[in-house]
Amino acid sequence: MINQTAYLEFRDLRDQNQDLKNTLESKTEKIEVLQREVKDLKSQNDKLKNSLVSKNKEMNALRDKINTLENEKKTLEVEVERLENEFQVSKEENKKREEQITKLTLSYDKVSKKIERMTKDREESKVENKTLKREISDLRDENSGLKKKVDDLQENIQRLEYSERIGSLPLTMGSPTPVEKAAIILGEMRTRVLAMMYQKVHPDKYEDDCSYTLKNIEEDIEDIEDEGARQEAKYKWEELKKKLNWNKSLHPRILKAIGKERNIVAHPRSLTKGLLLQSVEDMEEAGKLRGWMSFSRVNEIINVWELLGQME
Fold first, then answer.
1. How many whole angstroms separate alpha carbon 209 and alpha carbon 195?
2. CA atoms in the 13 A half-sphere facing the CB of 129
3. pLDDT in tens, 143-160
């Protein structure tokens, strides 16, 4: 009876043990499955972490690129604004230039017409000068037999050659008074001073049988077409005035006063400083030296004449 009971207990224990084994095996299998799942989850988690890190890097790179693009955009906006301002300034400058070009075109047209008119006047003057030369030649032929009046005729002939610039004055056939002679001599000095000044500036254009004025010197400089030659002539003119201590407001008026004072147009064959100084004294004694043609001022022109004669 006892053995049967023990057997039953043993069997029960054996069955329980088997059940426990089965349960343990089942749990073990589940654990293994769970472990594999956990391992897979860890692997997936690691992949997700790596993917997240990669995405974060990409996001940071995109943020940096966005910042760079925004900075470039700001720079471009500033550059566009600057270019727009420059364009506006250039547009205004172009408008001003167009206005200047219009004004210069009008000025050029006026100057061209003036040059054309001056050229025409110059050509007419040349024709008149040739006519006067022919008339002088005729006078010389007609009066060749009048020996007693040769000197007076020569003086009057030379006066006709210069009449283009200084105007026609009456011929005086008789002997001049000391004052008239002095005026003639000083007037001749004035003519030669202007001729020598012209010759220094325009040696290639100078002609012995023509008279000149200060205006001729300056106008002929501007008429030179070649820029280099024109600048060279201007330089010569300025240097000559410096060497002569030329007073631009005083000396031209003195020359003009001397020209007005000349009552008889004649041209002595030779001039000397002594003759000029004596002429000044004669006119001073006669009370003819006054205003622009004062004693000291006429002496200044004599000094200019002397300096011009000493130049090479």
1. 10
2. 16
3. 554 544 444 454 444 444
Q: How far apart are CA 144 and CA 292, in angstroms?
A: 40
Residues 6+ apart with CB under 8 A from 162: 191, 211, 265, 267
- Output the pTM of the full model: 0.38
Query: Which pair of tokens denotes residue 92?
Result: 């205004």
Q: Encoding tokens for residue 225?
A: 């077409």
Write the CA distances from 175 to 172, 181, 265, integer angstroms.
8, 9, 13
Give the position of tokens 């032929």. Answer: 141
Question: What letter does residue 232 receive in the DSSP assignment?
Answer: H
For 103, 210, 302, the CA distances from 260, given in Å and listed in that order, are 41, 19, 17
Contact present, 152 and 146 (Cβ < 8 Å): no
The alpha carbon of 23 is separated from its chain's Cα centroid by a whole number of angstroms, namely 113
CA distance 251 to 300: 8
Residue 219, H or E segment: helix 214-222
Q: Are 264 and 180 in contact (CB under 8 A)?
A: yes
SS3 248: coil
pLDDT tens for 216-261 read 999 999 999 999 999 999 999 999 999 999 998 899 998 888 887 7
